[in-house]
Amino acid sequence: MAAPSGTHLPTPAARWILLTTVLGSSMALLDSTVVNVALPRIGEDLDAPLTALQWTVNAYLLTLASLILLGGSLGDRFGRRRIFVLGVTWFALASLACGLAPTSGVLIAARALQGVGGALLTPGSLALIQASFHPDDRARAVGIWSGFGGIGAAVGPFLGGWLVEGPGWRWVFLLNVPLALICVPVALRHVPESSDERAHGRFDLSGAALGALALALVTYALVEARQGSLAVALTALAGVAAGVAFVYVEHRAADPMLPPSIFGSRQFTAVNLVTLCVYAAFGGFFFLTALQLQVVAGYSPLAAGTAMLPTTALMLLFSARSGALAERIGPRIPLTLGPLLCAAAMLLMLRVGEDAAYPTDVLPALLVMGAGMVTLVAPLTATVLASVDSGRAGLASGINNAAARAAGLVAVAALPLLTGMDDEAYRSAGAFDAAFRRAMPICAAVLVAGAVLAWSTVRRPVPDCAHPECLRHGNVTAPPLEPPRTGHGAP
């Protein structure tokens, strides 16, 4: 069914649509920003080893990264509102299971189910805005949605810390249930249904399954590699084989989930390689820093969550200006300078040890980190979208989003292995601090590699490529998702 001619701002109908999309995206955004803060308490309460904490983060990222492209396609085919509502409902039920989980194994399984719901609702939130609003009001609506998302990202770590210290870590997940109870009825009553009449062909289920399997097997092998068993080695080989099979299937499929032709753009390929470097470092940084502040520096969950606010605040305040600057001077300098600043910030984090003072030890590193992210993130997203034809902007952003999630997934799996953490490391301040001091230079080196790659390969996009409507970023863990467009103002 085609979308209506378009909703205008400001009208009651527009406010209902924005409320729905903000609530839906906030559910996934809050979980991505608050769970790291809760990890030490989760481990203590469930008597979980470090590997279980890794899987608490990675189970969600695994299913989200594997299925997010499929989720967008399902919305285009069967109705964006229908799939969005399904995603919100699924996410809420999985969140309830997380909040009630009696063991770490149940929590990990529920987190994987959460990722499935996230893959259904994340593409849908912005796609609903694109499909529902009149072209003249669409950019403004996206800006409002993005602004509220930024506020949610800023509040997330503080809220997570308060919940962990107060009602308990389970409420980090249970909070999604009342949000869904508001979001779903509003969506069904006030949001028009829309779909893409051009969507056709078969879904690439085999590609999605092989991609998920490859990520799962490689992640498992990295997490469990400390055992050094034959089973782990065979799992790693099976993961590589599944990845090769995924590439083969995508080349042969009539309607592939990840069309190889899109990588015909050297710029697109280069920027996604930069994305892998950057978001691998970010994933490792945010996972380990939340633990370092609590386990080693002795911060409470609330203090650890609040400590991270400067990076998000800087992103929210200045990323739009950074995106505009990159349009004027080209992306090469921002995509080189940004990773270098972030690398410097990670080296500054080596000052954070036992009894670290926030103003002199923690804050300087986070301010430099925020400056690097401001310089980098908006131009990165803009360059991804400008590297392909405007009709493939949604696909390009979905691939970039999946790449960012997958990079974080691999980093959280690999860094404990590379730094010699054992399953009890997070229970010992000395052992964790030693591993953290090995991890930050590794993350910095990966960022420097991304900067070198950007300087060597990234050029100014061609003039007739589309620019993204969403330039303000509040979510520091992944780029925003732009929906498909066939031209300016087209749903």
From TrEMBL:
Chain ranges passing through the membrane: 12-30, 50-71, 83-102, 108-129, 141-163, 169-191, 203-223, 229-249, 270-293, 299-320, 332-350, 362-386, 398-419, 439-458
Domain Major facilitator superfamily (MFS) profile, residue spans: 17-462
Membrane topology, record value: Multi-pass membrane protein
UniProt cross-references to InterPro entries, sorted A to Z: EmrB-like, MFS, MFS_dom, MFS_trans_sf
UniProt entry keywords in alphabetical sequence: Antibiotic resistance, Cell membrane, Membrane, Transmembrane, Transmembrane helix, Transport
Principal localisation: membrane
Location within or outside the cell: Cell membrane
Family annotation (PROSITE patterns): MFS
NCBIfam families: efflux_EmrB
PANTHER family cross-referenced by the UniProt entry: EXPORT PROTEIN, MAJOR FACILITATOR SUPERFAMILY MULTIDRUG TRANSPORTER MFSC
Descriptive protein name: MFS transporter
Source organism phylogeny: Bacteria, Bacillati, Actinomycetota, Actinomycetes, Kitasatosporales
